[in-house]
Amino acid sequence: MKWFGLALVAAASPLAAQDVPGARDPAGLDRFPRSYIVQYEEVAESLPYRFVTAPVDKIRQDLRIEGARVSGPLQRVTYRIPDGEQLDAIVDHYREILKAAGSGIVFACEGPDCGRSTIWAHDVFGIRFLVAPPRSQAYLAAPVTIDGVAKLVAVYAVQRGNRRLYAHVEIVVPDDEVVFDTNRTLAETLARTGSAVIDGVVPDAVGALTEEDISDIEAVAATLGTFGRETIHVVCHLYGSASVDELKRASERCAATAAEVLQRVAGVAAEAHGLGPLGPREGLAKARVELVLPYRLRSE
Length: 300
Known about the structure:
Protein Transport Mog1p, Chain A; seven-stranded antiparallel sheet; 2 domains; globular; 13 strands; 5 helices; about 300 residues; CATH 3.30.1330.60; about 20% helix; alpha+beta
């Protein structure tokens, strides 16, 4: 194995004024402000890599670590975050970078929804000091394109029991194209968190859905049979220069169309709601169709 670069420091060492020797930020992925690189690896040759796209767990003695198996050069960077920062701020920092550089985040989790931190630390990343309390972890996984190069980026951020914060970033350049079915785990996400956006479905300014949109909704509906005794609330969001009332009416038409598809294909009870521009998600004005199970929604 040819190592392009390797730099390591102990997790218990004081926060240094400088990065470890030989370390550098991944191209296009700015670090969290005032953070420092405490561990760094870069492998120039192509190696097998598992890009995790689901919560991790251990069932009896068997580990459950799901994701795309790829091969390619790998870069691994671990940052120590300054004391006094918030885990949510770190996650928001990387989420915005990944959204801007890619087609969308294929998997994200926070707290216990990620699974066991010990598995992430020991079995996924092999860095023991990333172990954290269950509520103090978050993970993001996204395909991005930086300087014309397709990459897969994984970010794992934690706040340890001693309150120290770390962000671990892994970037692999896959040898072959990787295609993700971002709606594959929608039913699981809906059951776990109470809401899920149907990826790839984007209503137009008057609330109309294309044949491709309908096809995507049908594919999602086919996975929702387990919700047969529940009412799924279908919410359409629209943004634009029209008045709020016009956007609300258009989004109501959009939601009604999507709800009809769910009822027809999945046989579930679906209730349509049009919010127009009144339900921004994480401050983003993006037209979308979202499924909601109100009683499963989590509060902080």
